[in-house]
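Hey,
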Amino acid sequence: MKISGMNWSQVEAYLQRDDRAVLPLGSTEQHAGLSLSVDSILSERVAAEAAEPLGVPVFPVVAYGITPYFLAYPGTVSLRVETYARLMHDILDSLYRTGFRRILIVNGHGGNQPAQSVAGEWMAGREGAAVKFHNWWNAPKTWAKVQDIDRQASHASWMENFPWTRLPGVDQPTQRKPMIDFDRMRVMGPEALRRYLGDGNFGGHYQRSDDETQAIWDVAVAETRALIEGPWA
């Protein structure tokens, strides 16, 4: 259940019987012809679907992350690492102060990895706190399913192309894009990277069948739910 569908007294009642919560992390960045909010949409949705049968509250997605390399693409918003670390620390402090102790962070953006270090450092100073950091898209079972379908899967490719990340009136290319050189990409500034990437896709098919992506989604939801269930110690 989403925390936005609860009031404070319902949360207080929940905390009398459970102390788990889910916090999705996303970003606002270019995803070729898909929504700029792909990472936020997917992390929040997989978290909500995983938590719903368990009755564990899911907090609103943190919709801004660390993505300086895409700043030449209009609509992209990037936070400084220092800013992001402080934001994560404050969110975790607030959850702890109100009674949450077991927190699953469901991350949807690779650039947000510093949040894992923040969570580890934060947890060490909070008695009874347990935080799990979960990159939902490349968790073992989910990534194995992606690879089983098509090994050429990447940023803004078919593996992020779901009915809920597409935009009306935007047609996806039908060809397979050659994979980029990741080592070369990592040393480029935003403008050079845009020239290199073009539309922003890293490589592979832009879209595959909805049956294939749904199969990935089902695995991702189940894998995320298992982390919420535990063990937590």
